[in-house]
Amino acid sequence: MPFTFDDLVHRARALPRGGRRAILGITGSPGAGKSTLAEHLVRDLNGSGAPWVAHVPMDGFHLADAELERLGLRDRKGAPDTFDAAGYAALLARLREETHADDIVYAPGFERTLEQPLAGAIPVPPTARLVITEGNYLLLDTGAWSRVRPLLDEVWFCELPEPERIRRLVARHEQFGKAREEAQAWVSRSDQPNAELVATTRGRADLVVPGSALPRVRA
Predict the structure, then answer these.
(1) Domain locations in the chain as residue ranges
(2) Which class would CATH give 5-205?
(3) Fewer C-beta neighbours within 10 Å, C or N terminus of the chain?
(4) Of 21-25, 71-75, 161-165, which has the strongest mean pLDDT?
């Protein structure tokens, strides 16, 4: 039987057990709706009460443009080797640890208008019993990325029909300043090879989330 967004909310709510913090990973190819799903889960789970769910995107671990230039990787921004994968895994490990009552863990964010990571932008309070993290490479099994999956309680894979995913992706690049032709070229040259790599990890997910269960707001 097809499942709905409400089913996903119920499944996420059940992840923390015995007072232990849980971490839910959401992955999928670029433009598949990962951020939208994560944001809506956080909103619905927290409701109007005291926040107990935090959202920590993988995008905060993008290497800065200056470092990408130094490494000769600027034109491959978004590929697996343009992230601090070891740093991301270390943060997830820290989030798994039980913290003191007044400890806040600060995670980096990503400023899309600047296309740059932003240190210490996301506070995760000790009251957060569920952390939702999302990004392309949560199920990669190479290099430092292989440390990520064992730190996650579940990983869900977002899946959209290819034409819709590409349409959303081009629109997002346009929204953040690229001309249409430039956006289409970037999707073909950079995003699509990354998408093909991410697609090979689908079989490692605990759940595949079809487009019919995704909130229809933005990619």
Answers:
(1) 5-205
(2) alpha beta
(3) N
(4) 21-25
